[in-house]
Amino acid sequence: MTQTQKGMSRLRTSDWDTVTVLRKKGPTAAQAKSKQAILAAQRRGEDVETAKKWAAGQNKQHSITKNTAKLDRETEELHHDRVTLEVGKVIQQGRQSKGLTQKDLATKINEKPQVIADYESGRAIPNNQVLGKIERAIGLKLRGKDIGKPIEKGPRAK
């Protein structure tokens, strides 16, 4: 026998088709959740924990529960303060006296035009930063006692 034939005979003796199973696969997620699988696990004495998820697999993100309805009734007193109509009128008059549109004023103070519209209509929740920018842009006071009065331009007190 030549060297090549010896090598070939060794290859023939080794079994390439043998498969070794290292571990058995457990049940899939769907099988593990079935009633039968839970009962079988309980009979074997294994710890089984089941938890019902609230509104699982359903589109219930907008459903009204008792607590939400209760909250709605209570929030009548707990609403955010809005900008007064007086402030809105002052902003509108100041903007028009400078010849600015809502969009122009918004661009000048780096805000969206909708913000100016909300402040003028009294829908906005007051933000001191935005009010300060509008005050400087139109030159009129919007906060405190002197609403509508011109801003005195003097040195800042530190």
From TrEMBL:
Polar residues bias: start-end ranges: 58-68
Alphabetized UniProt keyword annotations: DNA-binding, Transcription, Transcription regulation
> Quick one: where's region Disordered?
54-75
Note the Gene3D superfamilies from the entry: lambda repressor-like DNA-binding domains
> DNA-binding: is it a keyword of this entry?
yes
Report any Pfam family annotated for this entry: HTH_3
Record localization: Nucleus
Query: What name does UniProt use for this protein?
Result: Endothelial differentiation- factor 1
Question: Which residue numbers delimit the HTH cro/C1-type domain?
Answer: 91-145
The record ties this protein, via InterPro entries, to: Cro/C1-type_HTH, Lambda_DNA-bd_dom_sf, MBF1_N
- Point out the coiled-coil segments of this chain: none
Q: Which gene encodes it?
A: EDF1
Highest taxon above the source species: Eukaryota
Checking SUPFAM superfamilies in the record gives: lambda repressor-like DNA-binding domains
